[in-house]
Give the backbone structure.
Amino acid sequence: MRLVRDLGRRKLRSTLTITGIAIGIMALVVFGSMANKMNALIGGGSKYYQGKIVVSVGSMYTGGVQPMALSDVEKIQKVAGVAVATPSVSMMLSTTGGASMGVPDMITGSIPNGDKGLETFKIDIAQGRELNDGDANSKVTVLGSDLARELNASVGGTVTLRDQKFTVVGIWAPTLTAPDKSAYVPLAAAQDLLVGSLPPLMQSKVTASEIVTEVTVYPVAGVSPETLKTRLEALLGKDYTIMTGKDFDAMLGSFSAIFTMVLTGIALLSLLVGGLSTINTMAMSVAERTREIGIKRAIGASRWRIRREIVVESAAIGLIAGLIGLAIGAAMTFLFNDLGRPSGNVLFDLTLGTAVTAIVFSTVLGAIAGFVPAWHASGMDPVSALRYE
Amino acid sequence: MTILEGRNLRKTYRLSKRSTVAALKGVDIDIENGEMVAIMGPSGSGKSTLMHILGMLHAPDPNHGPAPELRLGGEDVAALSDTARTRIRARRMGFVFQDFNLVPTLTAIENVALACDYAGVKGKAARAAALEALGLVGLADRAGHKPSELSGGEQQRVAIARALVNKPEIILADEPTGNLDSERSAEVLALLRQFNREHGQTVVLVTHDAEVGAACDRIVRMRDGRIRDDGRRPAEPVMAPQLTPVPA
């Protein structure tokens, strides 16, 4: 209580300092949440790629994916060590290819149960049902949770994907990763959509049912994806992109690390400013209380006692600032997520870990900022301190 | 019994790199247990410096002339560390200052309890002791007031309660009545006198005020950093000011 009163006595300066640190902590919370979300996406991708190989021509991560022929699937299927090779067709939902933050909305077409039960990346159905064998030639879709919200779709209703109408038969539970923004359709429907988007001259040269964009390969138990990748490379040549879980991690893991570093750097910079501001406030407040410190020393307060008092006070400034910064940062992430949800731009994921880190960090920062003035104050001669005006 | 015994007490302050001032030029002093002693003298005579040394706020200079001796209750305290001197100030001494020196953000009872806290008595015990001490100075009903809500005389009584609360061996008062009108001065003096008479509390006070001096058992008179008359021995003849070089 005494502490709060002491802070209250210097309202303006305490307020400014607390504001300074709070802004830093807010930045840490917001950017940290952004990094969390990004890492969750990458983590989801990494999990998706484990234990399988995805073959494409070009890559969706490095530029345009070009179509490949359905006959490639049969070639791949014959390679030793391949348990199942199943084709799929992926494309962006938007035909204009407009950029958006995070993961774009996607349409993916595949053969229902084409994985023969080998897929380990399972997504729960929240409403309706999965696609099944009977859907092969129907215009039906299962939507990811974010996309369903974005399109305002419900099971039994229809949605327009590119220029065609689809009946929604199911909606997935949220995964917080890429599938949340995807529409899953039968392979034939996706092939149809893909061909429909080609320039008219090219349309006449291809047969919709003959093109795919990706082949997902599941190795036989005991064969490592890396071994299989070597064999596939030998078979297909260098025009094909063959990606294993390890390749994915190597590619996006480093991206994720840089991204996290940049965001953390920005937040730390703002905290450095906040920390210096705390040192300044504490130094001023100590100078102002020189006489009071002299009194306390004279009547028997030890140097440690004086130091502790000052350090605890400045840690309290840090804690209060941290709580305020966290509150504002959390409010911002929730607000932006709510605003972005209709358009599918959910960019922030505020985790408990981020929140706790922010609070602990600002408290420790406050305490450290108190050390310099505390040492100075405790070293003063009590008699001179008493005479100080 | 002699509670405080000082020999060869010297103190030289350094004003800048080249100039120093010898505030205390070799003082011998004895304070008896249960005594109420006034230290008097003109400004700059070294009385406050002597008080700060007796109160363990400063240590005597160890190397200007004969080795200083300072004994508190027979124990040698001349060369203690800052920590040890702080501990003695907290537990065995009480201080009263000219301008009261209460902590402005704390109430009367909190100010008194702070001294208990530093002496190792905490929480409820400290509050109870503080309230009792405030009762002794007649301010139990003002316990919840801040210094700014109290008159000068009341603030000084709170300070006396703070000095008394740990039942110290000795109370040191530096011009305790210097900022008070004559009526409040008399009250404060009477209070100190009462604790001295009724509880045998040893009191050393520095004063300019002859009336305050006259109310004490003994007057130590100082001039130019030396004791001219300790109130016990016959007065020494006044010496001409000496110019002695001060070793750096």
About this structure: DSSP finds seven helices and ten strands in chain B. Residues 100 and 156 of chain B are 5 Å apart (CA to CA). The mean pLDDT of chain B is 89.
